[in-house]
Amino acid sequence: MPEKFYVTTPIYYVNDVPHIGHAYTTIIADILARYHELKGAHTFFLTGTDEHGQKIEQAARSRGKTPAEYSDTISSTFRSLWDHFGIRYDRFIRTTDESHKVGVQKAFATMLAKGDIYKGEYTGHYCVSCETFFTETQITKDHNCPDCGKETQLLKEESYFFRLSAYQDRLLTWYDANEKCILPTSRKSEVVRFVEGGSR
Ligand SMILES: [Zn+2]
What's the 125 CA to ligand 1 centre distance in angstroms? Predict the structure, then answer.
C-alpha cells in the first residue's frame, strides 16, 4: 500500500479578494503535495473558501449584493488565481456546498447525540471586523479591539458549546505521546496550556 499524504490550506474567508498571503500558503501546500506525489504517495490536496460570517454579509451589503452573489464572485476569484499559478488541488471546497452542509449537520448531530454539545451563555467584547470575542482583560482601556483597534460591542448571547473538558485527559495524553503532532513546538506548548487550562 502506498503511503498516504493529505494537505489542506485554510479555507479562505471571502470577505475580500485574495492577497499575497493566500498565494504564499497555497503555493507551499502545492509544493508539499507534489513532493509527496513524486515519492509515490497517494496525495490529497484540499483548498477552498469559507463563506459564512457577519463580515461577509456586511461586505456584500456594502456592495449592493446578496451574500451568495458576493461569495460566488470572490470564490471564483480565488479559483482563477490558483488556475493562473498552476495549483493542482484535488478539491476546492466551499462551505456553501451542499455536501459540506450535509457533512456539518451530520457532525453536529453526532456530537449532540453524544452529549458533547450543551447550551450556555456567553458574554464578551465582540469585534465585528475580526469576528472575535475578547475578554475584559484583553481589550484596550477604551474598550477597543486589541488586534485591529476598532470599537468592540459588549454582547451577551445564548450559545452552544462543545464539551472539550470531557476530552481533556485523552487529548493531553495524546499530545504527550506524539512529539511532532503540532509544529512548531512553541505552538504545541500553547495548545497544551490551553487544554490544561480546562477550557469552557
Ligand atoms: Zn478587531
Answer: 10
What's the CA-to-centroid distance between 68 and ligand 1, angstroms?
Answer: 24
Which DSSP helix (H) or strand (E) runs through 133?
A: strand 132-134
Residue 141 CA to ligand 1 center (angstroms) comes to: 14
CA–centroid distance, residue 17 to ligand 1 (Å)? 19
Strand duo 117-127 + 132-134: pairing: antiparallel
Q: For residue 29, how many other CB atoms are within 10 A of its CB?
A: 19
List domains and CATH numbers for the chain. Answer: 4-100 (3.40.50.620), 116-162 (2.170.220.10), 165-196 (no CATH)
Residue 95: φ, ψ to 5°: -70, -5
Task: Tell me the CA–centroid distance for residue 128 and ligand 1, in Å.
Answer: 7
Q: What is the pLDDT of residues 75-103, one digit of tens each?
A: 999 999 999 999 999 999 999 999 999 99
Question: Rounded to the nearest whole angstrom, what is the distance from the C-alpha of residue 188 to the centroid of ligand 1?
Answer: 25
**Which of 99, 101, 90, 82 has its CA nearest to residue 46?**
90
pLDDT tens column, 159-177: 888 898 899 999 999 999 9
Q: State the Cα torsion 26-186-178-31 to the nearest 10°.
A: 20
